[in-house]
Specification:
Layout lengths: L4 H14 L24 E6 L6 H12 L2 E6 L2 H11 L7 E4 L2 H9 L3 E2 L4 H6 L12 E13 L11 H4 L8 E2 L6 H14 L1 H13 L9 H9 L5 E5 H9 L3 H9 E4 L10 E9 L5 H11 L2 H11 L2 E2 L30 H11 L3
Parallel strand pairs: 1-2, 1-3, 6-7
Antiparallel strand pairs: 3-9, 4-9, 5-7, 5-8, 5-9, 5-10
Helix pairs in contact: 7-8, 7-14, 10-11
Length: about 350
């Protein structure tokens, strides 16, 4: 049921009062960099499922360049989607951002996006990393790949996804729980590439290969390889890069022994997912929302995300900064990330049936 006008004003006011400021653009992003931005060029209300402190630098930079303040609400992707649905056409949300293509697809299916038909966005982001009709765009990539014990595993033993489910690794695999969106998107991609029969065989092989019941996050899986609990682990690339380049000497020592492999899907490259966002369906500040998206697609913003959160830029024209550059020479599968969400329910049912908890 729509909120009364006074409630809407109160909510928008609450946004403006306490929450954070935003980041900016450059000539490639469509934002102006010449001169001093206006002292108050309005606001953009951001609902974000990304929870990285480094993102605050993006929003601060956006405000610095444009004068547009970013009011930020953080939360779980599904929680934010539910909130936007409840708010209906009175929602103050201008932009919704999530760290998974499947979550963006769910928001789109719920009618929570409107197209941002910006040539700046279309030129900056490859077609396979955005929704075909402009409802959402990817701004950074992460590969879902393999960490392996270099003393026990040869690189050629983990250079395809099929090999991860082979008898060679019975009782020697670590992975986080099945219901995490990173695993759901991976299995959804396999369903898209292989169909249900081969994918279910693969999932059953993964379950048979578990060294322990799935638990923890991706960094826990890498550390488990280092501790000898398993020989291989499925992980996102940026978690490994964080450990390898972080301040913890113990983690850096682990990555001197545990290496990263980029398995190929049907000889076409490693599975990648995105962080991205789109303009909310009832955005009260549409123009500012598009400006924020254009900034996030800019070389400056993509470089900042890569440098500070160890993700890969979405655009192939953006130079990958250190420390990510050391892990950048790999082939990424060209599958459209827009296909993941449509198959996640099927992936969840298949994984549950196979016993991946």
């Amino acid at each position: 049921m729509p909120k009364p006008l006074a409630s809407v004003r109160a909510l928008v006011g609450a946004f403006a009062l306490g929450l954070l400021v935003a980041a900016c653009g450059q000539p490639e992003s469509g934002t102006e960099t010449g001169g001093t931005p206006p002292a108050d060029a309005g606001v953009v209300n951001l609902y974000t499922a990304r929870h990285y402190d480094s993102d605050l630098r993006l929003y601060e930079r956006f405000t610095e360049l444009t004068g547009i303040r970013v009011n930020r609400i953080e939360g779980n992707a599904d929680t934010l989607i539910a909130r936007m649905r409840t708010e209906g056409d009175a929602s103050p949300a201008d932009v919704f951002v999530s760290a998974d293509a499947g979550a963006l697809w769910r928001a789109q299916e719920a009618g929570l996006f409107q197209p941002a038909n910006s040539t700046v966005l279309q030129d900056a982001i490859p077609a396979n990393l955005r929704e075909p009709d402009g409802h959402w765009y990817g701004f950074s990539r992460r590969a879902r790949i393999v960490a392996y014990d270099a003393a026990k595993v040869r690189p050629e033993e983990v250079d395809t996804y099929e090999e991860l489910a082979s008898p060679r690794f019975r009782g020697k695999l670590c992975v986080r729980p099945a219901d995490h969106v990173y695993n759901l998107s991976l299995v959804a991609a396999l369903l898209e590439a292989w169909g249900p029969e081969k994918t279910e065989q693969w999932v059953r092989g993964i379950v048979a290969n578990l060294a322990r019941q799935p638990e923890g996050g991706d960094r826990d899986q890498i550390r488990a390889v280092g501790a000898g609990i398993c020989e291989i682990a499925i992980t996102n690339s940026y978690y490994y890069i964080r450990l390898a380049s972080g301040e913890d000497a113990g983690d850096r020592e682990i990555t001197s022994r545990v290496k990263l492999a980029f398995p190929s899907l049907d000889g076409r490259g490693a599975h990648v997912n995105i962080s991205g966002g789109g303009v909310a369906a009832h955005a009260p500040n549409y123009d500012n929302a598009v400006k924020l998206l254009e900034f996030l697609a800019s070389p400056e913003a993509q470089t900042m995300v890569s440098e500070h959160n160890n993700e890969y830029p979405a655009s192939p024209s953006v130079t990958v900064p250190a420390p990510v550059s050391a892990y950048a020479p790999f082939e990424a599968h060209p599958m459209s990330v827009a296909r993941y969400g449509a198959r996640q329910a099927e992936a969840q049912a298949l994984m549950s049936r196979a016993g991946w908890r």
